[in-house]
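Work Package 4 report. The design task specified in the project plan requires that, given a folded chain encoded as structure tokens, an amino acid be chosen for each position. We show below one input record used in the internal validation round.
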């Protein structure tokens, strides 16, 4: 139960029925939703001198007693998300709680996407790629995909993977050696598509 003063950014869920491509079989209803997770990173050394606490961001406080809650220390406003991870949370914790189900669904034939959004130096690259001995979401997801594939030798898998960056309203294909910008356009049916990806 969310408190009345909590600004709710957690996702709504719905059930859908889908036809498995090529088989004609209808899958059981499955919950589909967008999950919103927030990671509060540790302060950088240069920021610690400006912080009053020295250990957790001076602006945001992670509420350990209310999972999924983030408190603005200046205004006292509480913001609720599906998941909130404090500075002590590992990328593995984040992967298990908010990405693993996307990977599992992907291996069952459901499209999935994991996005990292935030301002410069907020920890997007570290979370997605990892650093040092801490693997990021991408290597953890790739490992899990191949683990799941190896568990189902009776199936045939065909994967299409895109790896892109949106920076200053431009889209770049990070798997391509060409530096061409990816263009967003509408196809003949009115659906949006990314060209050069």
């Amino acid at each position: 139960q969310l408190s009345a003063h909590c600004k709710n950014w957690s996702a709504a869920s719905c059930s859908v029925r889908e036809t498995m491509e090529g088989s004609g079989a209808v899958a059981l209803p499955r919950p589909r939703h967008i999950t919103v997770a927030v990671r509060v990173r540790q302060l950088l050394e240069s920021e610690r001198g400006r912080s009053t606490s020295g250990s957790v961001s001076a602006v945001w406080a992670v509420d350990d007693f209310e999972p999924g809650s983030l408190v603005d220390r200046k205004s006292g406003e509480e913001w609720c998300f599906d998941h909130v991870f404090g500075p002590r949370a590992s990328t593995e914790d984040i992967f298990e709680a908010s990405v693993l189900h996307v990977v599992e669904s992907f291996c069952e034939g459901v499209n999935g996407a994991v996005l990292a959004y935030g301002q410069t130096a907020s920890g997007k690259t570290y979370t997605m790629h990892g650093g040092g001995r801490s693997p990021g979401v991408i290597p953890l997801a790739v490992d899990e995909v191949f683990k799941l594939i190896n568990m189902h030798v009776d199936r045939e898998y065909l994967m299409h993977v895109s790896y892109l960056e949106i920076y200053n309203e431009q889209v770049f294909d990070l798997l391509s050696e060409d530096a061409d910008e990816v263009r967003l356009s509408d196809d003949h049916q009115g659906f949006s598509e990314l060209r050069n990806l």
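The CA atoms of residues 187 and 193 lie 7 Å apart. Validation will be extended to a larger panel in the next phase.
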